[in-house]
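new request in #modeling-help
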Amino acid sequence: MNKSSAPRQSLGELLPKLVVAPTFVVAVIFIYGFMLMNAWLSFSSSRMLPKYDWAGFIQYEKLFANDRWWVAAENLFIFGVLFIVICLLLGLFMAIFLDQKIRAEGAIRTIYLYPMALSFIVTGTAWKWILNPELGIQRLIREMGFESFTFDWLVNTDMAIYTVVIAGVWQSSGFVMALCLAGLRGVDDNIIKAAKVDGASMPLIYRKIIIPGLRPVFFSAFIILTHIAIKSFDLIIALTGGGPGFATDVPATFMYTFSFTRGQIGLGSAASMMMLMAVIAIIVPYLYSELREKNNEH
Amino acid sequence: MHALKIQNIEKIYGKVKVLKGIDLEIQPGQFLILVGPSGCGKSTLLNMIAGLEPVSNGNIFIGDRDVTHLDPKDRDIAMVFQSYALYPNMTVRQNIEFGLTIRKTEKSEQKKIVEKVSKLLQIEPLLDRKPKQLSGGQRQRVAMGRALARDPSIFLFDEPLSNLDAKLRVEMRGEIKELHQREGTTIVYVTHDQIEAMTLGDVIAVMKDGEIQQFGPPQDIYDNPRNQFIASFMGSPSMNFIPCQAEKVNGVIQISLESGNEKVKVPIKQNIKGLEAYADKSIILGIRPEQITQQGEEKPDSAKLNCDVELIEPTGPDTLVTVRINGVKTVCRIHPTAESKVDKLMPLLLDMSKVVFFDPDTQERVY
Amino acid sequence: MNIKRVLIYSILGFAALIYLLPLVVMVITSLKDLDEIRSGTLLSMPQALNFDSWDKAWGSACTGVSCEGLKGYFWNSVLIVVPAVIISTVIGALNGYVLTKWKFRGSTLFFGMLLIGTMIPFQVVLLPMARMLGFLGLAGTTSGLIMVHIIYGLAFTTLFFRNYYISIPSELVNAARIDGAGFWMIFHRIILPLSIPIIVVSVIWQFTQIWNDFLFGVVYSSGDSQPITVALNNLVNTSTGVKEYNVDMAAAIIAALPTLFVYIVAGKYFVKGLTAGAVKG
C-alpha cells in the first residue's frame, strides 16, 4: 500500500486550535460582529433605543447636515495634523540630541517619557489648570513683567483646539522620541564609518543616511499617532469638555454626546463609522505604499 | 530485519512537491548520511522520520513497526539538532534527565544513566551548569548525551557540526565516528558537507530537488557517480569536467585534449560500451584533480600533456595547480615539491584508468 | 566642554524642564490653600505644606452625586485592573504560544484579524457592547467593565507574546516533543520560564492602559462601579460653588500615582512594551 490515509485529527492536533478558539470567538463577535452591528445601526432609524430597521442613508445625511459634525471633523484635521507633525519633529530632534552620548541619558529619557504613563484625564486636568485664563500661565507671565500678555486660548472659540495640541504633544512626543532613539541606535555602525571615511560630515550623515534609515520607525510612529489622534476623547473631555460650546468637539466626543446624552444612537453610530473610515483611509494606503517600497527594495 | 525503511515518502507544501517519492532501507548499526545542497529536502526527510512533520504520502517503518502516524515520543528515536536545542532554564543534568522523567523512569535508574552517559562524553564536570555557561563543543556533547540517555533504536542528527569552528568540527567528527564504532548504534545524519558524508557514513544518500540521486557506500559514490551533479558535489576540490570530441579510430574510441600548446588524442582503454554512441560527437570527460599529477611515475593507461600554469595554490600536503584543457579551467593535484611556476609550461600526467564520462545534454553518466 | 555640547545640554535641559513643569505645578498647587492660589501664580511656592486638599480629594470631595472623595473609586479601579490584567495576559500568552509553536492552517489569518483589532477606534463597538452588557445583565457593573477590558486587551497581549515567542527557536520545542513532552508540559516547563521579560511588559502595558482608560469607564459604569478616571473627571467638572483647584490637582495626582509608580520602577519594560507594539511583524 503506497498511499497512507490521512489520519483523523488526533487530540494533539486539535488542542492548539481549541486553546485559541475562545479568543477567535471573542474576536469574531466582539470585534467584527459588533462592527457589523454598528454599521447596521448607522443605517437604521435608531434614536434613544436601537431599532434594527433599514432607513437607508438618512443618518449620514443628518450627520453631514450637522454643523457641529463639520466643526468636529475640522477640529480633528487641525489637531491631527499638528499633533502628528509636531510629535514627529520634536521626537526626532530630541532623539538626535539624546543620541550624542549624553551623560544622564537614562534620567532625561525618563523625564521625557513619563507623561505617557498618565491617563489623558490627568493630563487634561493638569493642563486645564495651567492654561487657566486668569490664574494660569497668563498670570505667571504677567507677574514676570509682561503686563499685556494674554493667554486665554482655553476659552477662546478659535484657539481652544490648539490647547489640545499642546497637551497632546506634551503627552505623546516622548514616545516618538523613544522610538526614534531606538531607530537611531539601530542604524548599522559600519555604514556610518564608511561615510566618515568617504569624508561626510555628521550633519550630512544624519541627513542622508540616518534619517532615511528611520523610515520604518516613522511608519510605526505615524500609525500609532494617527490612531491616538482619531481616538482622542479623554483628553478633550478633561481639558475643555468639548468647549467652549462645541469649539473643541471632535468626532469621538460628538459620537459620545449624541449616542449617550442626546439619545441619537443612529447618528452616533454613523459618526463612529466615519471615524472607522478615517482610520482605514489613512492607514491602509500608507501601509500599502510602505510595504510596496519594501518589496521593491528586495 | 531493517532498522529503518522508507517507502515512497512524499511531502507536498501547497502546490510544491518537496519530496518526490523517497525509498530507502538501512540495517541495524548502519550510519546513513543524507547529503545534498540547500533545499534538497534532506532536513524535511529527517523531520518526517522523527515525526516532527507529517507525511503527505508513503510509509515509514522503524524496525517492524509502521510509525508513519505516530508521535515523535512513540517512535523510539532521539535527535541532535544543529543548534543543540538545550533547555536554557535547566542544568545539564536536568536536560539529560528530562526525557527520562517524562517516561517515569526510576530516580535511581536515571542517576545511573546520567553517570554512564556523562562519563562516555566526558561532561561530568558540567552536570550542574546551565547551557549558557558552556562552550559550543560542550553544548554539542550535552546534546548527544541527552540523545544517548534515551537509548533509542535510531539516532537522528541534523547538521550537528555546522555551528562549530573548523578545528572543533574535525575533532567532533572523529568523536562521533568513534562513538558509532563503539556503541554500534543506527544513525541517520543530515549534512551539506560532503567531507563529513565521506568520512562518517556507511551508506550515503545524495539528494537533490527532493529525490535521491544515488544511494551507496561513500567510495562507490565517489568513484562511480551516476550523474554530473553527484560527481561535482562529492569531492573537494571538485571533479573537473572537460568537454571533448570523441572519434573512433581503429575500433577504439579516442578523445582529443588540447592545452593551447599541444593537442593529443587519448585512446580510452576502459571498457565503456556506451562510448561507442559518441563517436564523432562531443562528450564530457570527468577527471578528478588527484588523477592529474606531475609527470614522473608512468602509469598504465595515462596521457601526457604540457599545459600553461594559470594559478598555484599550495595547501601544505599537496599543491593545486590550475591549467586550461580544452578551454576549460582544470585543477590538478601535484606533489608540493614538483616544480611549477605561473605562466610557465608544466608537464602533466593524466591517469585515464578511472575517469568517467557524461552526456553533455542530459549530464547522465555514460556506462 | 565645547560650545556644541553646552548647546545640546541646554536644549535637552530646557526640554526636560518643560516636561516636568506640569507635574511640578500640580504638586505645588495641591499643597496650597485657595487664598494662596488666588493671590499667587502657577509657580509661587506654598507657604506651608498643606495636605488638606489631599485629604479632601481622597475622602470627601464631591464626584457628582456622592461626596466621598476618590477613595472608593480608587479601589474600584484596582478591582477592575487586577483580574483584567491577569486574565488578558494569561490568554495572550497561550495565544502567542499556539501562534508561534503550534501553527495550523489559518493561524496567520487569525493573527492578522486580531491585529486589526488593535487598530480600530473603539467608538465602533461602543454601542453594540452597551447593548450586549445590558443583555447579559452586566450594565453598570465592575464585572462588565472587566469583561470589556479583557476582550479588547487580548489583541495587544497576543501581539506582545507572539512577537516574543517567535524568537524562541522551534528546535527547542521539537527537542521537547521528542523527549516526550506534550502541549502543556512544553508550555509549563520550557516556554514559561523563558517568558518573564514579556510577562512584565504585558502586565505593565495592560495595567497602564486599563487604569488610565476613560472611554469604557464612562460609558459602561455608573455610580459606585466607576473607575477612578471617571471619578476624577466628575470631581474636576462638578461646579458646585467655588472651584477648588488644589483639590483638583491632588485628585489628579492620586489618580496618576499607581501608573507613575509602575513607570518609575519598571520604566525600562514600559518602553519595551511601547516599542514592541510598534514593531509590527
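bot summary: Chain B touches chain A at residues 7-8, 55, 57-59, 68-69, 71 (CB under 8 Å).
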